[in-house]
Design goal:
This protein is 51% helix and 15% strand. The protein is of the alpha+beta class.
């Protein structure tokens, strides 16, 4: 083991004492550097704002209404399904039904009939689709 020299211990003590006296005379205190927390000051204010902006963007892009072209396709499919129901009823009964055979379909599709033909109409969010007696559909879109 290494024995320390009494002279070197004495010298260390004197150096430490001199440094303490100089610091005391000058009024200088050497505080220990404290580590700053990661989330402090302006970072703490920016974080909630960024989170709110991100949530708003997600909600707008995900939960927004579908494009009018998608609405038009969905309404066309619904009208063709309603037409199939009407034609099946007509084939089974020999006449056009008084109302649409399916109540849930009737809540979306308007069924207009006369003696020998019918027309189906559906509207939603500025999109208006009509399926005429000849089986052709007409789609109109209006700005939202």
């Amino acid at each position: 083991m290494h024995k320390s020299n009494p002279a070197s211990q004495e010298l260390s003590a004197l150096i430490g004492q001199a440094q303490a006296e100089v610091s005391q005379r000058e009024g200088v205190h050497t505080p220990r550097a404290r580590p700053r927390p990661f989330l402090s000051g302006s970072k703490l204010l920016v974080l909630p704002g960024a989170a709110i902006a991100l949530c708003g963007y997600w909600a707008w892009s995900t939960l927004g209404p579908p494009p009018q072209s998608q609405i038009a396709r969905d309404l066309e499919v619904t009208l063709y399904q309603a037409r199939t129901m009407v034609e099946q009823f007509k084939a089974a009964q020999g006449a056009l039904p008084e109302t649409l055979p399916h109540a849930a379909m009737a809540s979306v599709v308007r069924y207009e009939r006369d003696e020998s033909s019918y027309k189906l109409v559906a509207s939603m969010m500025g999109v208006h689709v009509t399926l005429g007696p000849d089986g052709r559909n007409v789609t109109e879109t209006r700005g939202r």
